[in-house]
Amino acid sequence: MLSQLLLTLCFPYFWRDLLFLLKVLRYGARLELTKLTRSARTVLDRFVQQARRIPDKPFVVYEGRVHTYRDVELRSNRLANVFLDSVKLRKGDCVGLLMNNEPDFLCAWFGLAKVGCSVAFLNTNIRSKSLLHCFDCCGAKTLVVGSDLVEGLDGVLDVLLEDNIQVWAMGGPGGHPRVHTLLDKLDAASDQPVAAALRAAASLKSPTLYIFTSGTTGLPKAAVITHLQSLKAAAGFWAFGATEDDVMYIPLPLYHSAASLIGIGGTIELGASCVLKKKFSASQFWTDCRKHNVTVFQYIGELCRYLCNQPKTAGDQVHKVRMGVGNGLRQDVWREFQSRFGNIKMCEVYGSTEGNLCFMNHIGKIGTVGRSNFFYRLLFKYDLVKYDMVKDEAVKDPNGFCQRVEKGETGLLLSKVSALSPFFGYAGSKQLTEKKLMRNVFGKGDAYFNTGDLMAEDRDGFICFKDRVGDTFRWKGENVATTEVTETLGLVDFIQEVNVYGVEVQGHEGRAGMAAVILRAGMAFDGGKLFEHVTRDMPPYARPLFIRLQDVMEMTSTFKQQKFQLVHSGFNPSTTSDPLYVLDYQQQSYIPLTDGIYRSIQAGERKL
Question: What's the pLDDT tens digit per position in 227-240?
């Protein structure tokens, strides 16, 4: 009795940690046993199994229409037969998938997987140069595009066809004259399954997907997603306590790993149902949840803030939602969300698409991204090391090794690469893969995955996200590569040099894009021309909201652009003598940033 009391007082989370870890270990052991068998079981295998077990159960509800497990199974079979007979795909081919959220995204994905193809999920916001780069990365020679996105290919279709990339639209006859169509071939196709040997995975470490993530190279990087990573992600809902009776709400884009791997994969693993939204709508969110009896939803922090900003109603707590799973939820928004919409358990998950480390806040402590303890550290080797924000590099000791931070201090999160925590890297470039690694961190020969995130771990083992380092920041739930923005802005004729970075905006998650610009000699700043350029060539989340004109660009001692002071000085016109401009959609220009506009932004009155 005394020992139990001491355990409760000194280690209040011991039993919850232990039970959660045992649950995760049990799933991990199952995966390890699968590796020993001749035929590795994949997420697709699990879907086929569920389609046989619960064929009439709703799998996806989309715009009011129910698609059962059988419906998706049969339609994906038809597509698989079309891919084999008409598209002439073969096992081992890579296919680009450019589609918005809809059931046929899943049917195309599963159909391609059934014929043994790896699939590259393409961000629907990317423009011509980035799109072509994505094909080069993963070696895809076929593109499957949603019927509503075909017109957007006009600027790049010629190049795709010249590169012998065949383009197939998820539509019928009468569309683009140079694009093949799938739906007219679907009706005549068999719904019988193709040979199971085609989808069979020789190893769980075989690539199955390529999911693109922004990096410091200026163009999207193709993170290699193996069957093993997909299976681990599919266990997320289950690990947090979801069951087959839950109804999941997925408003995030399927081309990101959260919606596809955790959301769809997790629904399949449980044999549950999901409500798929084409695009998140704050005004429709709770109406959808009530209508479809949603119990679990996926989020990013920005999504929850949008919900809190909606007008209050008497029915704010009239729903069946009991849990949210996601990342990036700020403490103040977290508290407001639960206060207003009820005691919904918010389960933060930390981990990048390509990373080899995952934290899960199974305790639900507000403001933390995860939980660690003695047992966790035995299995997953990670460290927080001292980082110099001014020099933009890890602090080294006299022997050239990194230095660990003390408990509670902020440091750069590194995760050791090992057989238990492998790093599969990026497709198409060993250089990019190597760049994400840090070697000889604590000893000769070791290798760590550099998350690029500054974190802090308190004495109770709770881990808090502090900031991002390097050339990537997040805005509107998307990663923004500063080098890509820099290259795009550099094409404007009056701009000589650009330094892009993210600045904090009161009341918003992430960081808004800002660019320090040096003008070419004898040329003037043209806000209208710059507006036209960025709105034409860049997705909305990557467009710089603020411009700062400078005479001289500050550099570090290693000739890197200095961002630290710029980030901290922000966009307040009263504290800088440099001319400042703000993106204005009404005037279709970058206009002078006045004190009045600055105050309206800080007060949340001006939409960004």
Answer: 999 999 999 999 99
Q: Say which CATH topology domain 355-400+408-437+446-468 has.
A: Luciferase; domain 3 (2.30.38)
Residues 6+ apart with CB under 8 A from 212: 120, 121, 122, 123, 126, 134, 137, 220, 221, 222, 223, 255
For the domain made up of 42-227, give the CATH fold.
Rossmann fold (3.40.50)
Closest C-alpha among 286, 396, 272 to residue 337: 286
Write the DSSP string, 476-511: TTEEEEHHHHHHHHTTSTTEEEEEEEEE--TT-SS-
Question: Nearest CA to 385 among 368, 361, 369, 401?
Answer: 401
Residue whose C-alpha is closest to residue 380's, from 346, 413, 408:
413
Residues recorded for the chain: 608
Amino acid making up residue 495: I
Of all residues in the chain, the percent with pLDDT exceeding 70 is 94
Residue 446 CA: distances (Å) to CA of 222, 402, 429, 439, 494: 25, 12, 21, 6, 47
Give the integer Cα–Cα distance in Å for 594 and 600.
Answer: 10
Q: Residue 598 and residue 571: Cα distance in Å, rounded? A: 8
**CA pair distance 214, 250, nearest whole angstrom:** 22
Most confident of 169-178, 368-377, 536-545: 536-545
353 and 367 in contact (C-beta within 8 Å)?
no
Closest alpha carbon to 246 in 283, 275, 215: 275
Question: What whole-number distance in Å separates Cα of residue 373 and Cα of residue 417?
Answer: 19
Residues 327/477, Cβ–Cβ less than 8 Å: no
State the Cα–Cα distance between residues 120 and 103, nearest whole angstrom.
17
Q: Is the pTM for the entire model greater than 0.90?
A: no
Determine which helix (DSSP H) or strand (DSSP E) holds 32, and give its type and residue range.
helix 14-36
For 80, list phi and psi in degrees, rounded to 5.
-60, -40
Q: Work out the pLDDT band at 21, boundaries 50, 70, 90.
A: confident
Torsion, Cα 409 414 418 422, to 10 degrees, reads 130
**CA 537 to chain CA mean position, Å:** 22
Q: Show me where the domains of the chain are located.
A: 42-227, 355-400+408-437+446-468, 472-602
CATH classification of 472-602, choosing from 1.20.1200.10, 3.30.1330.50, 3.30.300.30, 3.40.50.300?
3.30.300.30
Write out the E strands in 193-351: 207-213, 221-226, 247-250, 273-276, 296-300, 323-327, 345-350
| Cβ count near 195 (within 10 Å) | 13
H helices of 202-346, where? Answer: 227-234, 236-239, 257, 265-270, 285-292, 301-308, 331-341
What are 38-66's pLDDT values in tens digits? 567 899 999 999 999 999 999 999 999 99
**Phi and psi of 489, rounded to 5°?**
-65, -30
Res. 557 pLDDT band, cuts 50 70 90: very low
| Residues 6 or more apart whose Cβ sits within 8 Å of residue 415 | 355, 356, 357, 380, 381, 382, 421, 448, 449, 451
**How many Å apart are CA 450 and CA 132, to the nearest integer?**
27
Nearest to 213 by CA among 110, 160, 134: 134
Strand, helix or coil at 165?
Answer: coil
